[in-house]
């Protein structure tokens, strides 16, 4: 069983949503002491606040809060009697702290030299990367925590999984596949970036093909090819990787709201609620 602190450290690296569940007060007999914690995600739970029906109800409540998709805190009171089928007979106050999903989704198609060079950089950024290729041997042995490896014979079909606003990077070994991915992305019309690696000649050919397929000038203007910052020159894999990652950083930083107050727990209100519940 992973300790809750280790789990939170990993979840913060990957940007995955989670709820920290803490026993903040007990009255009478209870399965765990005040301060006991567990972590709940959409699919798993880690550590324990005592097991049994109490934990089952706490997990259900945590996942209910996750439906809000925004940070929040909540206190729930659980009498440990017949209602929960536990013989302790006491009462437990539980604090739920929901931390919503963080970071931008990036769909990276292709596992060639440039994509491999990008991985150490992407691993250190607040991004959730979906790395897609049909060739198992191209993926390295180590995949960062914030990267989902997607091995598939249908890369274009994988694009259907991308959420609106996702960044898409096309770096495959096949120009025809690059074009098919580009066309599918433009048809969606809801992605935050459609970037394709290649030369100016490749970019011109893609735009001509798209125009022949009756894509509008406005649609075609959403294609960034060659992808990457023009002021970061070079053709080595790491040079190209830095150029592309630099462009991603510029984009998500521009989308990040400034001077937004951090969600904080009003401990005075929570203490009042806790004191009142323990008096009941």
UniProtKB/TrEMBL annotation:
InterPro entries: MoCofactor_Util/Proc, Xanthine_DH_XdhC, XdhC_CoxI, XdhC_Rossmann_dom. Pfam families: XdhC_C, XdhC_CoxI. Residues 12-70 form the XdhC- CoxI domain. Signal peptide: none annotated. Residues 106-248 form the XdhC Rossmann domain. It comes from the Bacteria. This is Molybdenum cofactor sulfurylase.
